[in-house]
Amino acid sequence: MKNFYLLLFSFFLTAYQIPVKKDIANPATYLDEIKTALKKEWPNNRTVNLVFHGHSVPAGYFKTPVVNTPDAYPYQVLKALKTAYPYAVINIINTSIGGENAESGAKRFATDVLIHKPDVLFIDYALNDRGIGLDKAKASWENMIKQAQEKNIKIILLTPSPDTSVHIMEPGNVLEKHALQIKSLAKKYGIGLADSYAAFKQVANSGDSMNTYMAQINHPNEKGHALIAEAILKYFIN
User: Fold this and answer.
1) Does the residue 42 lie in any domain?
2) Does the residue 228 lie in any domain?
3) Is the pLDDT of residue 3 over 70?
4) What does the pLDDT average to over 224-228?
């Protein structure tokens, strides 16, 4: 009887084209299948692919041209995951390019990202998307999200880390506009969100100096990358 009512409800939604309300994915449950895979021991385990797609920050640029790969947030995430999941085989794949925006990232998405068959995909372009504007950024992010969802890939979007030339506490600043748009996309598609912007804003709001988290004007240092990693890890460790 219960199945009958579920089928009836599903028919009702389809017949009347009632949209199913979505929200940002719950960090406690969104990656349940991935977390189960990470817990398995040899010979029942498998390689879990985490792909980081974006600009110079996930690529590991600190004080340009220095690239500090081990302390960039993708590898801080790896270190934390290996502590939490000692039996896991985790492959970090970084497809990020310094100076790139989402429009360029979307053009190479199939060849450079999907080819790696990500289990979890992270997208981080907002800092550079200021150059192409909100509309083009949105179209490009949606392009990548839709391609990934067609492959049943779990997706976590990242809001921008700071550029100290933009006052993070100023309402309606350009980075905040991109952060709000990314939150809206996460909600629309029911996917994950690592809110880097909120983490850094909390630092500024507490009175702590933003400079202690930055390697240069637009690149976080190890401490800043740790804030981003922490926002990601809530999806894996809870």
Assistant:
1) yes
2) yes
3) no
4) 98
